[in-house]
Every structure is written in structure tokens, then in C-alpha cells.
Design a protein that fits this description.
The complex is a heterotrimer of chains A (351), B (412) and C (297).
Chain A: H1 2-22, H2 27-49, H3 58-74, H4 79-83, H5 95-124, H6 129-147, E1 159-160, H7 171-198, H8 200-217, H9 222-248, E2 250-251, H10 253-257, H11 260-274, H12 280-299, H13 304-318, H14 322-330, H15 341-346
Antiparallel strand pairs in A: 1-2
Helix pairs in contact in A: 2-7, 2-8, 2-9, 2-11, 2-12, 3-5, 3-9, 5-9, 7-9, 8-9, 11-12, 11-14, 12-14
Chain B: H1 2-23, E1 29-30, E2 33-40, H2 47-66, E3 70-72, E4 75-85, H3 90-102, E5 109-110, H4 115-127, E6 132-134, E7 150-152, H5 162-171, E8 178-183, H6 187-203, E9 206-212, H7 221-230, E10 234-238, H8 240-253, E11 260-263, H9 271-275, E12 283-286, E13 295-296, E14 300-301, H10 302-313, H11 319-338, H12 343-351, E15 354-357, E16 360-363, E17 376-383, E18 386-393
Parallel strand pairs in B: 2-4, 2-5, 5-6, 6-7, 8-9, 8-10, 10-11, 11-12
Antiparallel strand pairs in B: 1-2, 3-4, 12-17, 13-14, 15-16, 17-18
Helix pairs in contact in B: 2-11, 3-4, 5-6, 11-12
Chain C: H1 4-7, H2 10-40, H3 47-63, H4 71-89, H5 99-121, E1 134-137, E2 142-145, H6 146-168, H7 170-180, H8 182-187, H9 192-217, H10 226-239, H11 244-265, H12 270-291
Antiparallel strand pairs in C: 1-2
Helix pairs in contact in C: 2-6, 2-9, 2-10, 2-11, 3-4, 3-5, 3-9, 3-10, 4-9, 6-7, 6-9, 7-9, 10-11, 11-12
The chains are: A mainly alpha (351), B alpha/beta (412), C mainly alpha (297).
Amino acid sequence: MKKNNLILYGVLLVLGLAAPFLFPAFKVQISFMLILIILAMTWDVQGGQMGYNSFGNILFFGIGMYLCASIQIGMFFPLAEWTESGGEKTFLHTPTQYFQGLAVGLVFAAIVPAIVAALIGYGILGLRGHYFAICTLGLGIAAGEIAGGIELIGAGQGMTTPPWPKGIGDTELRAEFFYYICFALLIATFSFLNWAYKKRFGLVLNAIRDNEDKAEAMGIHTMRYKIVGWVVSAFFVGLAGGLVGNIVGYIEPIEVAFDGREMGVFMVLMAILGGKGTLWGPVIGASAFHIFKEGFWTFFLGWQYVALGFLIVVIVVFFPEGFMGWLREKYPERFGEVIDEADRKAQVELK
Amino acid sequence: MNKISKLLVTILSAIALAFTSVSSSFAKVEGEYIVLGAAVSLTGKYSTNGKHTQNGYNLAVERINSKGGVKVGGKSYKFEIIYYDDESNSKRAAQLAERLIKQDGIKYMLGPYSSGLTKAMAPVTEENKIPMVEANGASRSLFTKGYKYLFAVLSPANQYLEVAIDLAVEKNGGKPVNIAMAFEQDAFSQDVRLGIVDAAKRTGSKITIDDKLPKELNDMAATLAKVKATKPDVLVVSGHSKGALTAIRQIAEMKVDVPMLAMTHCDASKLAKQHGKKSEYALCAAQWHKTLSYKDKFFGNGKKYDKDFTKEYGYAPPYQAAESSAALLVYKDAFERANSFDTEKLRNALAKTDMQTFYGNIKFGSGGQNTAKPMVLFQVRCKGDKCENKVVAPTKWASAKLVHPVPSWSKR
Amino acid sequence: MDYLIFKAPILMVQASMDGILLGILFALIAYGMALQWGVMNIINIAQGDLVIMGGYIAYFMYVAGIHPAFGIIVSPIIMYFVGWGLYKLVINKVVDRDLFISILATFGISILMQQLMNFVFGADVVVAQSNFGTTMLFDNSVTLPNSKIFSAIVSVVFAIFLIIYMKRSKLGRAIRATAQNARAAKILGVDTEKVYAATFGINAALCGVAGALIAITFTLHPYVGLPYTVRSFMIVIVAGLGNLPGVALSGMGLGVFEEFADYILGTEFRIGAVFTLLVLILVYRRFKLSKKREYLK
């Protein structure tokens, strides 16, 4: 088992490292896909593993994005002037400034959302079920709307992130640079979650999902674990946000930073498509979803949402367990489950 | 589990590879076609104007192709446009620009609808040194960044309603006026606002109400209540089609009396047709009107363009469509002057553009904006129940005299 | 922060009235949402799109020369069948599943509907004219468009009608029984399939009425349904699931809050303020309940 694991990881690692050279025209495309995988995986920490369907992880994404960009700019130029009048003045970063700003920006983009999660976690994570979902939805929407009113970060006109400094290579280098950072982040997120799920942390999350009251009754401090889970998600999502802001180049409060539809609903969809509550589920779901979307979008010009709508309805109605769930049903032994045949036959179904 | 995951990953990679080979290489010139790329809003909140934009592009392509096409290097070529739907979303627009340039090999771009989307796409085209002629992104901030590959055929947003303020001051005997304004929170509307702020500073006028329009709900009752309470001389509203329709509806309902009402997007929202007499006397900014006297060899003059467009698409062309058609005329002219498909030569030819189209004169300033075409103001006038837009400024094209102050609701 | 509203207190009357009228209309949509949430455990993301579709029905009546106010009769009838059809096609497969499945399924329906409306009705923003005029109060300083007053009255009438129907009629009782305990109802002979279909149909009909009212009060566009969806489940959550009278109060309260926020904080923070309030209300409730070692169900 272990050897197969290593081979698989090895192959994926090599593929990932070589991708920019195998598919040179798709560097940015694949970077977005990697980000989606990260978002789906972190959503799954709450949604799949813990059973708390969160529509609000987008809050951390947006905070990370705005914070990273603001620091990148604010360290060297007056931020208010950069965003004034929709960004009329232009300032140029030197290469050292650009990378320094990016590094510091990303650090804050990771830490601040994590702190936010820790602070509001106690209040928000005390809600259950639909109330939690709607509350986090409210958070996401409120954040987007409030960001759209703050002049310092561009308000409704948005904010452009620092352009790639002149003199150190062209767009190809830029795409490669960001691709590798995204890939590194993906490896970090995956490895961390892989490790964490195997520990007590993973077990507690699943216990909360299966029956929170019983878990509490058994003496587990569920609130602590819930908050830790959210802090972990916030950390990685914030970083992802900072990166996306730079890749896209233009931050609009509701369409780029706090993109409820794309990040909110699609994240959930991807995790469900691949299989909630599994490590690989979100990975497969996000990849398949992104490839489908990008591939077929062009063929269904104008009708892409009809196609997506059909796909969603089909998935949700016929494959709610997702791909991994379907596999689990067919080959339970591979997942380490032991089926008692007598027990299964004895189950009665009420139609 | 691992075997299956491995299999899955292989399958997914295979599909991805398949897409690489199948979907791409539209490249710059294929056979007798020059391929242009465009992302327009076919769905989402800008779908109304996205459609106008696409129709404008298509009509121009058809017209140019049927009249001999584009002559480069002694041979005749036809235009072809690859479209993607940006879903009225700026992130999507930026992604599509990247896709068109990198995956589809497009070397010449046409702009999207709205300043916000153009702002998202411009950094991509600029960094990749791909010329983009855009017709619907008017934000001034696009033209102050020193972009070398961006060319806009339309007048910048801040010019839209400056003329209205000047007119108001003029009618007030040269004295400063009180201005109330409400704008949507997107790039374009906020830029129109900047123009008003500049005009106010210039004329010494005071801005008494400076509100934003609610983004989703179509309700500006709060702002209008404040307007009724403070009685300004001018009310300026800009919020794309939805804003224009909401404003007229609620101004009529709440019987708000203002000596001058200045708005944008009156024709794109078919204001005169939908609200009829209620929209009378509204002053509207337009990039173009069919009664202007410009002409060119492909579309004739404005009236002929209006007729041809209406015949082809079943409705009268708003200026969004007209300026989109003009973009193709600019490309044709530039290709022929550059006499080459090289993007640098084309870019230099574009920068030297100096031509007249049915839409207006086009000459690009150093930032890419069109410096040769003034904005037009028209006023909605009604005969009985039928309402029309009549140009009132600049005076040399005026077909009606400005009615100012607007008669109060009790007298209408 | 803008203090105009305190300097001219009459504006407070305007804000309150605007808020209440708006709130009642939203409460109607929220009522439908609460109904199917309570009975079928479904959060319908396509609610706003059903409203818009209902609105388009009224709009086409207007274009055809019939006064759009009659849309409040025609629209619910047509929308009832649309809702019923949607139930039979898609919803019945997600009724007894996880709540989140229903969210995704209705999301899929939502984007399908938006695209189809875009294709069939066109991408123009449209309005229907009611020509109802305006009511002026307090010496012309408070203006209330009669279309808004009409909307509020119609909403109240339909809400009352629905409450009575639920209490008295056979179907109404069947619906309430199913909401309380679906299995028990089934055992006692209630055809739950029919009840579910009828509930979804009634919800769609309510959306139809709201849509017709919106056509004459605001504007219509295939892609502007989402705000109505979000408002309606916000109202339901604030009222608390299962608390139907609370829906009306909650709707009006949020409406007034929103209008005041508009005046004081500025329009750009209007929506942000409302959602922040939602978050605060929920967190407050959670702390109150946790003292009793309970949580929101």
C-alpha cells in the first residue's frame, strides 16, 4: 500500500513540476485549477469532514486578496493615491520592491484571515446546520458589499495589483512563477491535511459530523476543534486569495475578491462531485469540474450555463455521493471498510 | 483506492491533452481570414449591452467583408471574430483574454462591454503586447496608465455629462449651480461621477447630494426623497440600463421636480419607448446619434447605419452598437496602412489613426483615448404619446432647442 | 455618516413607510420560502428566478395591452403549474435528502431558468406601467408611489388568504400534517407526493404574485432574481424556521432597517449593513441559547 502511494505521489509531483513545459499555453489555466483544488479541499474540512456546510470561506479569500495587494502597494507607495479615481496614477515597482512586497503581503494574507477565523469562530461556529450555512453566507455577502464601499481599496471601481516589474522576463516567466507558487501551496495544503486527518483531529471532525451532541457528551471540546479547523482553512484560503489577486491583476470586490457564486457554490459542487469527506474527493472534483467548464464552455457559447445547470441537477440527483462515494459503494474493501453480508441483507427499507 | 486514483489522474490528463490539440490554434491569419478575438457579455447583468456590442461587431464584419475586405500585401482578406462569453464578470474576462491570447493564439483583440471588464482585460493584452481596439470601456483610468496597445474609439467617461453641467451653469446666468447625483458603484459610472466632480470644481458649483445607487434592488427612493428635500438645480443619475429605467420610473412616481435631469444609457435601455411621456425632458449623454453628419464609405451616414442595423437585427442601434462597428473600421484602416500582420507594425499604424467614420472622427491620444470626438447630449421630446431623442448639444448638430428648466410635474 | 435624516425628521417617516412597503412585498416571497422549507426541507435558490418569471408574465400581458395589475391573478395560475412541473421533474428526487443537495439542485434549476429566460425573453431590462399615480402625505414631503401601496395591500391579502386556506382547507391541513411529521401523515393516509407538489406549486404561485407586483414597481431582467432569493431566506432565518407570523414582522423590520441604513450609512453600505445585521442576530441568538445549553434548530 505504502509503495503504491509513493509512486502515485511521485508521478503527480513530476507531472506538476513539468506541466508548464508540457502545456505552455495553459500555465495560467492550470494555476487556476490548482487554486480551485485548494479551495475545494479547505471547504471540505468544514463541509465534508465536519458536516458544517460553509458558504463563508470566501471571506478569508477576499481578505487575503485585498490585504496582500494593499501591502504590496502600501509598502512603497501611498495606497490612497494608487486607488484614487479608479486608479489613474501609475506607480512602478522595481523588481526588489515587487518581490519583497509580494512576500510580506502573502505572509499577512495567510495570518490575518487565520486570526479573523479564530476571533469570530466562537460565535459563528456555535450555530448549527442551516443557520450556520446562512450565517456564513451573510458574512460572505456583507464582506463583499462592505469592501465595495471602502474608498481606500478602490470601492466599486476596484483595484489593480502591481504589474510584473519590467526588465526581468516576460509574461511566460510571470506565469511560470505564479504557477510554481500555486503548486507549492497545493502541496503544502494537501500534505498538511493528509497528515492532520490521520491524527485525532480528523477523528474528532468526523465525530462532530456524525453526532456532535454525543461527541460533546463524551467529553470532547468540540468548539476547540471546530475553531482550529476553521483557522486552518482560513490560512490556506487567505494565501490562495493573495495569489489569485496577483494572477488576475485586477481586484473587484464582488466579482474577484468575494466571488460568492464561483467560490461559494462551485466549491461546494466540486467537493460533492468528487466526494465529500475524503482527501482525494475535492481534488478530483475540482479538477474534473474545471476541465469540464473550460473545455465545454467554448463549445456551448451562450448556453454554457444551461449545460452546467443540467450537469448540476444530474450530479446532485443521481450522484450525490460524488465519484469517490460511488467508488466507495462499489469497492468498500479498498477503503478499509468491512461489510457484514448478513447485516446488509437484514436492512429493511421504507419506501 | 490508489490504483483507481492513479487511473483517474491519467484519464483526466489524457482529456486535458486532447483539449490542447483540438481546441486551439486559431492563430492570427488562417487562409483568407484575419482572426480577431473578443470576450462579450452574452449572459449576466450586462447581457443587454453585450448583445448590442456583438451585433455591432458582426454587422461591421459582414459589411467590410462584402465590400472587398481588407487588403494586405496585395491580397484581400476577410475578418472573422472568435467570441467567448465573459458572463459580465471581470475575473472571467481576464481569464478569457489570457485564453484567447495564449491558447487560441489570437493576435488582435476587440474590447468587451463595460469599463470594469475592459480594465480587467487591459493588463493582459498590454503585457502580451497584443493590440486591443475597444469600443465600450470609457473609464479615464484606462488611459492614464501609459498603455501602448490599447485603443478606444469612444470618448472617455468623464466627458459624458460635463457638458450638461456647463449648460446648466450657462442657463443659470453663468452662476454656479447645486448638483445632486447618484451613481452605480462600477468603474464606468464612478468615472462619469469624476467628470461631474471636475466640472463642479471648474464652475464653482456645489455638490449637495453624492449618493450611490443600490446595486441589486432597483430602488432609489431614499436618494429622491433627499433630492425633494434639498431642491438642487441639476440631478445626475448614471447606472446603466437598470439605473436609467428605475430613475425615470421613480422620479415620475415621486414627482421629483428638478430643473435639469441628466442621465446615461437612455437609448440602450429604450427609455423613451418604455416610459413614454414620463421620460420627457430627460437629458441624455450619448457617444453618437443617428442624426449627426459624419459619414464613411462602408455605412454611409448615421441614418443609413440606423436603417441597416434595424433591418438586420429588428431594433434601432444604440450607440454601444455603433461604436462597436466603428472598431472594425479602425482595424481595417490600420491593417491597410501597416500593410502587414505584424503586431508591432499594426500597433504603430493604429496609433497614427486619423479618420472619419459614420460614428465620428477617430484620432488616438497618447494614452489610447479618442481625442477627436465630442460627446452628444440629447433630450427626450414627445408628441402626444410618441417620444423621441432629439440632439440639443453641440449646437451645430442640434435638431431641437434645449428645454430648460424642465416643467414641473404638476404642469405635465 | 449622513445626518440629513435627523435634520429633516420627516424623512424618517418616508424611510419607515418605504421600508414597510418593501418589507411586506419581500415577506410574501419569504412566506413561500418558509412554506417549502418547513414542509419539504428544501431551500429554493431558484425562488428569485420564479419571481422574475412571474414578473415577465405580467410584463407580456402589459405588452399585449392588458393592464399588468391583472397579472396578480394570471401569473400565480401559470406559475403554479410551472412549480408543479418543476417538482415532478427534479425536486421530488431531492426531497428526502440532505438539505445541501436541495440547495445545489435548485441552484442548477436557477441558472437554467436564467439562461432560458435570457434566450426566450431577451436580454433587455424591461418595465411594465401601472399608471397608478402617487399618494402624497404631510404636505407633499412624503411621497408614496401607489404601485408600492398596491403591492403591499395585495401581499397582505394573499398572505391572509393563504393562512386561512392552510387552517381550513383539506389540502392545507394535509400540508401542515406533512410538515409536522411526514411519515405519520403518510401512515394516516395523506398522499405526501401530492402534498409536496402542491406546496411547491403554491410557492411558485406566491412568487408569481410577487413578480407581477415587481414588474409594475421595479424593473425586470433575466439575471436579477438572486437578490430576491437571498432576501427571502434571510427573512425566514431571522424570523426563525417555523415562525410564520414572524416572517411578516421580520420582513418589515429588515425593510425599515435597510432604508434607515441607506440614509445614515449611505447607499453603498445598505446591503452590507443588512447582512451584518443578519450575522449579528444569529450570533446573538446562539449565545442566548447556549446559556441554556441549547442551539438553534
